[in-house]
Amino acid sequence: MTSLTVGLRKTAPLTPLLRLLILTQLAFNIGFFAVLPFLSEHLGQAVGMAGWLVGFVLGLRTFSQQGLFVVGGALADRYGIRPVVLAGCVLRIAGFAWLGYATRTWAVIGAVLLIGFAAALFSPAVESEVARQAVVHEQATGASRTRVLALFTVAGQAGAFVGPLLGALLLSVDFRAVCLAGAGIFVLVLAGHAWLLPQHLPGRERVRLEGGVRLLLRNRRFLALCCAYGAYLLAYNQLYLALPAEVERATGSQAPLAWLFALSSLLVVTAQLPVTRWVGERLEPRRSMATGLLLIAAGFAVVALARPVGWTGTAGLLPAAGFVVLLTLGQMLVAPVARAWVPDLAEKGRLGLYTGALSSVSGLIVLTGSSATGTLLDTGLPAAVPWLVLAAVPAAAIALLPRGT
What we know:
There is one protein chain. Helices cover 78% and strands 0% of the residues. By secondary structure, it is mostly helical. The chain has two domains: 1-199, Growth Hormone, Chain: A, CATH 1.20.1250; 211-405, MFS general substrate transporter like domains (Growth Hormone, Chain: A), CATH 1.20.1250.20. Helix 1 (16-33) runs parallel beside helix 7 (145-171), helix 6 (105-141) runs antiparallel to helix 7 (145-171) and helix 6 crosses helix 14 (313-345). It is globular, with a radius of gyration of 21 Å.
């Protein structure tokens, strides 16, 4: 067994720093997802933006976040995670508060960019330190680093599940109350980190910014992992593109989407750790990711095989539910292992840069691939063809996975 899987039967108490970072992910996602699901309707109804402008603003948020993860990661390598995380929290508080009071297009765009850039600072800093501490924990106790990354994933999904419930409750007041509640959560996160996050972390070296990107671009094994991970994210993004179209076709409404999203979140929260433990005892990292990508491909194939039948109503939702279950199971295998693999591929002292690059490169793949997917879904091809093409993407990505650890 490899360093990523050895010791999965062993359990050891997490260090206080790991507990803080995992709870941070929970709080981040509660605050973020309390606001995000209600943003597009607010922009269209309350602010009065045209549909294309709403899409543009949401795209700007994604770009200012995912696209700049590599910047936040590099800054964490240079200055340490504490100042980068604290700065990100301050910007997120300011962005949410500004968004709550913004009524003009330029103000909304400014607030959204601030919100996105805040995450580009704190998320890669926290993720890279979780990965580094997971390796330290593995070396000290024999407990698998993948299990720690799985806990991190569970915390994020739990936050993504609780956040919209909190936002929906506060939306009965108004959207401003939702934004201020999101800002309030980040005030608590800021205070907690200012108090608990150490000034200096043993073993974390600070490196100069120069030369890091050049080394990264020469690291073929890491870039191969980024491409495979990007294919996974492109497939996962179909929860928001292809799945709504399928649900609308089957039921004439998108109301069942909420239940399917809840199903996905609950599966991760309840099954991620058992799945990680079971797979980790049997499969090395490359096979784990390959199995996950095959499950995702099978999810698309389920819908493709059912489309010619043309089921509607409750029966018509069964293929969509099968797709969500298989996609989520694939996510459980791919996401924690990919992030646990990065420390083995990163240059010494540049884990933040590599962690951020994993998100930025894969995010660029999703951005370009989603445009192609949207065109594919609108071309009028036979019903099964787009889903078969989408199934081929994660299946083909298996060939990109690096060999060994």
